[in-house]
């Protein structure tokens, strides 16, 4: 444990984006903690060397970061939340608390695709046609300088962050991340094996990760769940001041030893 020193917070980004999406939150927490925000394997500078993208493979690739940086707390957004939970299971005693934001809780691929189909036929097609969708990611990344001025004017406040800090990844970390991590039904099994407090932050209007299953998991396992009114899937990234306040009040709260 941390013995009164400043927290060391490991931040794990989600699907399609990179470490830079945490920049605003890291700045907000600069006086409170040491922040470590790596690219997930298969993303950005870590874009090579991962031929398989199963959850265990991702955890294995992140273990050297944990060994070197010795984080005391961890927070993952979206897919990064699943990875954060898996790291906490693999390294019991490493983290005082685990944070998950915008956590996707799907019990199966069929359940995930059914939800996306309800959100529109285009999303359904894109989540099935991995080669086509990844080719689009490559094109967006290569032409990002052209898209940034357009994205910065979009009503979706997170669009410019996505274009500037995302779409730079391997095919495996695109296609297999969906199939083997996001839609693979890991959350409940991991939750059963985590023996430190879990703090959850979720947007009330999160379309990518429905709030109902998160509420159910939080209630079953005794997690504290903070719901951000009107917040969407990117709320932890697009509202860094609010997220930093939540981190200080919840994730960094001292853990009371069991008696």
Topology diagram in text:
Layout (H helix, E strand, L loop, with lengths): L7 E5 L10 H6 L5 E3 L18 H15 L3 E5 L1 H12 L6 E5 L7 H10 L2 H8 L1 H13 L1 H8 L7 H7 L6 H11 L4 H7 L4 E6 L7 H11 L2 E5 L6 H4 L1 H12 L8
Parallel strand pairs: 1-2, 1-3, 3-4, 4-5, 5-6
Helix pairs in contact: 2-3, 3-10, 4-5, 7-8
Low-confidence stretches: none
Q: How far apart, in Å, are the first and last alpha carbons?
A: 17 Å
Structural class: alpha/beta
What count of helical segments does DSSP give?
A: 13
- Report the average pLDDT across residues: 85
Could you describe the 3D structure shown?
The protein is an alpha/beta fold. It has a domain at 8-107 and 185-251: Alpha/Beta hydrolase fold, catalytic domain (Rossmann fold, 3-Layer(aba) Sandwich). It contains 13 helices and 6 strands. It has a 6-stranded parallel sheet with strand order 2-1-3-4-5-6, sandwiched between helices. Strand 5, helix 11 and strand 6 form a beta-alpha-beta unit. The protein is globular. The mean pLDDT is 85.
């Amino acid at each position: 444990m941390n013995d009164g020193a400043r927290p060391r917070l490991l931040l794990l980004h989600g699907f399609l984006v990179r470490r830079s999406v945490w920049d605003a939150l890291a700045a907000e927490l600069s006086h409170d903690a040491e922040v470590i925000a790596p690219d997930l394997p298969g993303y950005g500078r870590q874009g090579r060397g991962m031929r398989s993208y199963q959850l265990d493979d991702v955890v294995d690739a992140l273990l050297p970061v944990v060994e070197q940086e010795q984080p005391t707390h961890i927070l993952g957004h979206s897919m990064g939340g699943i990875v954060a939970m898996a790291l906490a299971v693999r390294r019991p005693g490493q983290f005082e608390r685990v944070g998950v934001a915008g956590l996707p809780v799907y019990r199966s691929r069929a359940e995930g695709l059914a939800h996306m189909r309800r959100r529109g036929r285009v999303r359904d097609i894109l989540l099935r046609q991995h080669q086509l969708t990844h080719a689009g990611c490559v094109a967006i990344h290569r032409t990002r300088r052209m898209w940034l001025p357009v994205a910065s004017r979009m009503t979706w406040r997170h669009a410019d962050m996505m274009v500037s800090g995302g779409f730079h990844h391997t095919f495996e970390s695109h296609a297999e991340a969906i199939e083997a991590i996001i839609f693979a039904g890991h959350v409940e099994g991991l939750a059963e094996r985590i023996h430190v407090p879990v703090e959850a932050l979720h947007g009330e209007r999160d379309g990518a990760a429905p709030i109902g299953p998160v509420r159910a998991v939080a209630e079953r396992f005794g997690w504290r769940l903070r719901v951000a009114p009107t917040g969407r899937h990117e709320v932890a990234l697009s509202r860094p001041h609010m997220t930093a306040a939540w981190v200080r009040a919840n994730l960094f709260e001292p853990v009371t030893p069991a008696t």
